[in-house]
Amino acid sequence: MLARPAKAHERLAQAGLAITAACTILQIVLGGRAWQVAAALGLAVFIAAAWSRVSRQARLFAGLAVPGALLVWLLAPAPAPVLQAAVGQSTQFAALLAALATLRLPMRRSPLMGRAAASLLAASPGARHGTVLFGSHWLSLMFSFGVVPMMGELLERAGLHVRSSTVARGMLATVIRGLAMTTTWSPMAISFAIVSAAFPMLGVLPFVGAGMLVAAFLLGVETWSERRVVTEPAGPDAAPVPASPSDRRALWLILGMSVLLFLATLSLHAATGWSFMACATLTIPTLSLVWALAQSRSRQREDGHGRHGARAALSHFFEVLTETRSEIFIFSAAIFIGQGVLAVAHAAGLGAGGTGLPGWLLPLLCLVTIPLVAALSVAPTIAVLIWAQVFAGTASALAAPLTHALALTLGWSLAITVSPVSATLLLAGAMTGVPPREIALGWNRGFVLRSGLVAGAVLAGLYALGC
After folding, report:
1. 387-416, pLDDT tens digit by residue?
2. Fewer CB near the terminus (10 Å): N or C of the chain?
3. Spatial separation of the C-alpha atoms in residues 116 and 132, rounded to whole Å
4. pTM of the model
5. Residues contacting 397, CB < 8 A, separation 6+
6. Widest CA span in the chain
7. Contact 448, 218 (CB under 8 A)
8. What sign does the dihedral 314-274-140-426 (CA atoms) show?
């Protein structure tokens, strides 16, 4: 009796989110406020239908969005445009998160991912730490925090149990750090969409290129500073990882697909002038669906059940849309909460440029406060959105947009490793039996301090150069 209503609610949530994504794209392509209204209604249907299936934190954020919007209405000089823009951002982020979720379908069924990840563990003991760090960094470009359970499973198969092996835990911590630093520059991450919206004057290629170099530098420093953690024996459980079925060609194929996806999105962006976020919302699910259908066709050649497999692939394609339901709640609500906080700050005379702080200090404060907020179990989205909107009105951000943009994404990257409520650490905690807070402040505290100091020096240098 209870299964049918739950199934109906899930279908309704899928339909609402699909309408949100489709109408968001149509509004960008065709223009007209009617599409935005339809997208907002679709998002409302999704929220109502998915309410009982999201995390407690997601419901809390959704509840706080209401007083946030009320504060804007009461305190902002022109509340209607602010709230309308917030609704537009919410639907765009919801559409992008739904698009990103579709990547899980082909990845989940692809043997390529397992072989690519296994090739990282097959590296020699002396090179394994750096290989896992950089390899997980690149694999997470498409697979996101799914890299954590995948690598954990491979370690288990190799005889290193994450609940008892210090080496396995060290490797898992390395995976988390490599994954987190992808947020610094990945054009397929929600962080990129938020920061790009805040700095429309910053080109896609300069942002991605600079972020990639900074992330590589920080990972290089981490490889050097932690080179003894994984590679030197610490007891009987620290034996070299046995060879797993691996294929470096699979790793390069995954990386090649990531590059092609980026180039396709960039080409669409250049040809149409649409935002990169809108283009990604189109290209990512297209790739996911084509890949999933190709997998079903391959199974047809093997076992003759391809037609049923194709129908199942289409059905699962719509099912995975709502797998990021909690994230959609949090990101959508954070926009209104952030606007409410800004409205209060402006009403109190603490608006952008009114603090009297030097311009070079703002990016450094941003870099420090975002991980601090995350360590208190508050989603870093709130701090990022507030800082993004503060930056948008400062002369220092206009003079050095790249520095301020990287301050946001670097802060978010570090926040992932110290947030006890991040999906990454929750997964790691479930696998290891270690509380996520201990992973955040025990495993990753040194990494955040080291990387924060290096990142601060990099930001100071970029600001001095006027970047």
Report:
1. 887 787 677 888 889 999 999 999 999 999
2. N
3. 11
4. 0.77
5. 199, 362, 391, 404
6. 70
7. no
8. negative
